[in-house]
Amino acid sequence: MGIFDFFSVDIGMDLGTANTLIYLKGKGIVLNEPSIVAFDRNTKKIIALGQQARIMQGREHRQIRVTRPMRDGVIADFEIAEGMIRAFIKRVIGGRFSIRRIVVAIPSGITEVEKRAVKDSAEHAGAKEVHLISEPMSAAIGIGLDVDAPIGNMVIDIGGGTTEIAVIALSGIVNVESSRIAGDEMNNAIMQFFKKNYNLLIGERTAEEIKCEVGSAVPLKEEVVVHVKGRDLVGGIPKTVEVSSVEIREALNENVVQIVEAIKQMLERTPPELSADILDRGVMLTGGGALLKGLDERIRMETNLPVHVAEDPLTAVVRGVGRCIENMNKYSKVYIRKRTY
Fold this sequence. Notes:
Layout: E1 8-15, E2 19-24, E3 28-34, E4 37-40, E5 46-49, H1 51-56, E6 64-67, E7 70-71, E8 74-75, H2 78-93, E9 98-106, H3 112-124, E10 127-134, H4 135-142, E11 153-158, E12 163-169, E13 172-179, H5 183-198, E14 200-201, H6 204-214, E15 225-232, E16 238-244, H7 245-269, H8 272-281, E17 283-286, H9 295-303, E18 307-309, H10 316-326
């Protein structure tokens, strides 16, 4: 180990559409913040990021813009995304250390150009060595599945921007389906529901809160009613409406159906030997979307497969990149390589 190794660190990053999580080698998960940035429109200087920026969302004046630089699991605004990555890393490691290695989890369905953009952003943030890993593979490692084994595992990672459905065996992805129907689309469905049925305009944050509070994929034991505040599209004044969890479930149903259909299509494309493994072992749900009430039950009903929600599904991907960082040699086969994906 050289003298410079004492001043350099290895980090793992789940650069998500909704949240950015960072794992520091030897320390564990050291950052979990919303992937949101507030910046000055004129100077492009970042004013706030993460939770602080989230509080400002929907309340900013014309000089400030609050944005999410990640859309559908990929970088939508390169300059702001780079600034966000740099700021988060600086917050974690300070100015005394440099980054030796970084492992970044990315959606499996992104293009070569998008992969290059993620790599460039990590390099510009100071990383000397950048490795990419697909989100479902990282989630599988994070929840403790033996990805090396000649046994089929099915992982469904439902994030903010993408739903990744993958069958994994022998340190590789046998089949993968990447869909843009995920948490953001569910929020959008709730916003459209209020616009169409109540002439009420609500923000993204409110839609997210409603989804987490009363959203479900199957009927609840006790249906509940929530009061929702927004702006009346006809009168233009603030108003409150009462909505039941039944209505919210109807609003989300189309998205849930699309996710279930994607799972069925994946099962149809899975080799028979691996299908037998999945029947025995079941399906693992990870990501924030796995927390939608009754989603595991709905998938179980539609596919007749055992469905398990991973422990702490929100951090499954970053725990996976963390394991890769802690044991680079063991997981060397799982990284995305040029011209082989």
